[in-house]
Amino acid sequence: MSWDYFLNHSPALIIVIPLLAAFATPLIGRFSRKAMYIWITASLALTEIFSIILLYGVHTEGTMVYVMGANPYNLSVPPDSGGIPVRIILTVDSFGAFMAFTASTVALAGGIYSIASEHSQTGQEKYYALLLLMLVGMLGMVLTGDLFNFFVFLEINSLASAALVSYRIDKGVAVEAAFKYAIISSIGALAFLFGVGILYGEYDALNMAMIAQRMKFTDLDKIVMALFTVTLAMKAGAIPMHYWVPDGYGKAPGGISAMLVTASQASLYGVFRVSFTVFGLSANTLTLGWFLIILGVLSMFVGVTMALIQHDIKRLMAYHAISQTGYMLLGVGVGLATLGTAAFNQYGLAAMEGGIFHIINHAMYKGLLFLTAGAVIYRVGTSDLNKMGGLAHGMKYTTIFFMIGALSIAGIPPFNGFASKLLIYESVYQFNPLLSIIAMIVSILTLASFVKVFHSAFMGPKIYDVKEVPKSMLIGMCILTFFIILFGLFPNIAMTYLVAPAAKALANPLGYIARVLGGGA
């Protein structure tokens, strides 16, 4: 098979590989646990490789349109009334490829980390099968060009995530957290599906580009826009629809907590995709942009203030995940509010780039922080900060990884969080200085919160006689640390090859529509 074969089929292969691996995992696990670990690692690594191939393909060829079951060299298959083939279509622009790379990287780290962290648990075949299905759901959400297929992948993501949250049971507490997550996910998914049904009834289409082209922005469309943005923001954990986040993140295994970050970001991708691509040409983008900005500011401030009073290390980090989501909503919201005006070129695009850059930065450093929290719980058996202390004496590498993640989330140079936050501060200040000031205050409070965690868990006299966690857990943390340092020291690499193309693709709905319906690049 040639390079062109893999390149042309990469949109499908990146989903098919973890999907097939998920169904084969229980069979392999029945014969050999070691073989299962090798199988899982190889599957996740191969998915990561194809995410890089996909980035390369989009960078060189532009938006990729892949029709499942069609010849990729000849997409002239039987169309429906709108000219869109009656098949599943994957539409991969630079933003979708960026999100796929982010999700695949965190999944690789979480999967390798889990080999040791879940070694003593029963039912590991189910655990890894669900982990792979969770990845399938995320990848499908960010790569599909069809609203109904987005719903299907959203459900796969939600069901697998809920099952993994309850994996350790924890005297029923984890099951309760998973039940909350499942209920909220079901309500959100039904509301989203209701919106999809309305659009299908109006425009006889499910394809995002076709709906955007036919959009008349009636009162029904306004209702659908509200359904989509609110339900997906709820799935992303934005304030005030964040109720599932502390329990879900707090009770999931460490590797799954890291993946829940990217699972939430897949829903955030959905907010941005429908806001720009589906409704961006017909809706009042200033109003919609301010809606995202308000959600962002609320999420930033409420999330960090709630984190300050937590004593459970994972619940504290969960509230910080909510807070950091606010930065992404703020940056992209400013870009949406200024779309189509002179201000967009002056600072709106830069704000979008900052918000999108923060997506991958947050996935890396928050994923790392959840892995370090899992490592601490793995050794001491508790998540209560009041019962910890002196862990740096025996867990030197975990301590270093925690410090890197903490400094990055607080926006301290030379780590990656500084690069994206600085870009947000500068661009948002030109839009509204007060918003930028609030964002900086939140970063100061974030630093204060993690100083408390560092002092409570790692400093002071030795309370527990512990040793460092197993190598696979350290390798998982190393993978994310590599990108934290790389994007911190060399932000231009991320900006040139990942962030800037993603922001420009998202801000160009006409180009997306033209590429899908024929003629555009």
Number of helices: 19
Radius of gyration, in Å, reads 22 Å
Side by side, the strands of the main sheet go 1-2
Distance linking N and C termini? 27 Å
- Average pLDDT rating: 90
DSSP summary, beta strand count = 2
Q: Largest sheet, described in full?
A: 2 strands, antiparallel
SSE diagram, text form:
Layout: H1 3-31, H2 33-61, E1 64-67, E2 89-92, H3 94-117, H4 124-143, H5 147-165, H6 173-203, H7 208-214, H8 219-236, H9 244-251, H10 254-278, H11 285-308, H12 313-337, H13 342-380, H14 396-409, H15 416-431, H16 433-457, H17 471-489, H18 491-506, H19 509-517
Antiparallel strand pairs: 1-2
Task: Describe the protein's architecture and organization.
- With 521 residues, the chain is mainly alpha-helical.
- The chain has a domain at 284-489.
- The chain is built from 19 helices and two strands.
- It has helices spanning 3-31, 33-61, 94-117, 124-143, 147-165, 173-203, 208-214, 219-236, 244-251, 254-278, 285-308, 313-337, 342-380, 396-409, 416-431, 433-457, 471-489, 491-506, 509-517; strands spanning 64-67, 89-92.
- The protein has a two-stranded antiparallel sheet with strand order 1-2.
- Helix 6 (173-203) runs antiparallel to helix 8 (219-236) and helix 14 packs antiparallel against helix 16 (433-457).
- It is globular.
- The two termini are 27 Å apart.
